[in-house]
Amino acid sequence: MGKLIVVSNRVAVPKARGAAGAQGGLAGALNSALRDYKGIWFGWSGAESDDENDEISTQSHEGVTTATIDLSHRDIDEYYNGYANATLWPLFHFRLDLTEYERETGKGYERVNERFADSVTPLIEEDDLVWVHDYHLIPLGERLRSRGLKNRIGFFLHIPWPPTRLFVSLPYHERLVRTMLHYDLVGFQTVEWRESFLHYCSEELGAEVNEETGSVTLDGRTTIAKAYPIGIDWDHFQAEGETGEARQAGQRLLSSTRRRTAMIGVDRLDYSKGLPERLDGIGRFFDQFPERVRDLVFIQIAPPSREDVESYKQIRAELEQKAGQINGARSEVDMVPIRYVNRGYSHAELFGFFRAAKIGLVTPLRDGMNLVAKEYVAAQDPLDPGVLILSQFAGAALQMPESLIVNPHSPDDMAYAIRTALDMPLAERQRRYEATIDTVRDDNVQHWTKDFMADLTSIGTSG
Ligand code: F6P
């Protein structure tokens, strides 16, 4: 068998793992996949070049070879800030109200996919497996096929797939999905997103779909669609938890909260994460149970993200206002109920914070999976575990039904869940932890990679 070629928008070398909390799940997941399989990780360097520059820069670090290109200001504007993050991201997270469509950014998206194909094709040899990631690069498989590639090519979508009725609001939606049918294998985080995709293919494209096997046949080509729920890098995270850095971080948090229970949220500053709604839930908790204001301190870590996109500027302003309002109304001279922190922390520090916080709050309005939910549970002390409050709209809720499942649109639901978590007896906390920890440990990122790679290796290709 040949080597593995991974292609994703961003490439994050292992030494940058410290920022993983800010980078989202994909970077950490791919680093561990590439540690296990010999191969090359190709993508954008994250840097802006002055002009169209096709130079590929390669580096090897801890067994991972990365090959990156820079993008021009126009490429970043149209492809990354534009079509990927102002069109596809909101649409795929069911936010039609925030979805913008501009012909120019659509063209930029296609142009950058073309550039990716031009640059990565010479790195691919006959027997190599190619694995493309996420919504930035949906058309890449078709672009590679048009250059004559007959390799097995897989694609994994890290975010949700929206219901057909929403998806058809995207101009040229057919064109986009038809390009996806040039992959041999298409992976989704949950069965729900896979079903929506199959529904679209059958209803809108008239493809022949087999719900059971997930095969989609159109114009003589067959693609298999399957769910592969992503997991965390359990061993690596546990090792981080053993470090002095993790212990110190936990101590720091505990000594600053004293007799109050720490409740924590860690999210990229993104509207899909439901942060204003979360603050509404906390505000409601303080309104309903004013005698408990001194029992709780909420720590929200929210590193800024995609700051050039208008909807992200707005969400940041809204959060600052809401956090300020609640603190203004509820603080005392010796006590502030919400600590709102706009920076990222290393994985080791996050482990320490998660273990010290007796409630984890993960309440996205829509999320492909959400690895923070899994990391929170993974960091708990089995003898005295904390409680995870989890949105019913995170992919992770399907795998972790023993968490306290909430509707993030309901401040009352969240307020009551917070009170339940605060008062939950040890035996029940342990029972919920025991019911969840096996899937967090066993359905890990190595397992995810192995499953996807095994299917991609054994599948036939329509070439
Ligand atoms: O999980 C979706 C995703 O876009 C990943 O591809 C990425 O690692 C993460 O969110 C962070 O986003 P960005 O690369 O835009 O900072």
Automatic annotation (TrEMBL):
InterPro entries for the chain: Glyco_trans_20
Pfam families tied to this protein: Glyco_transf_20
Highest rank taxon of the organism: Bacteria
Alphabetical list of SUPFAM superfamilies matching this protein: UDP-Glycosyltransferase/glycogen phosphorylase
PANTHER family registered for this protein in UniProt: BCDNA.GH08860, TREHALOSE-6-PHOSPHATE SYNTHASE
Family, similarity comment: Belongs to the glycosyltransferase 20 family.
Protein name: Trehalose-6-phosphate synthase
Species, as recorded: Qipengyuania benthica
Lineage of the species this protein comes from: Bacteria, Pseudomonadati, Pseudomonadota, Alphaproteobacteria, Sphingomonadales
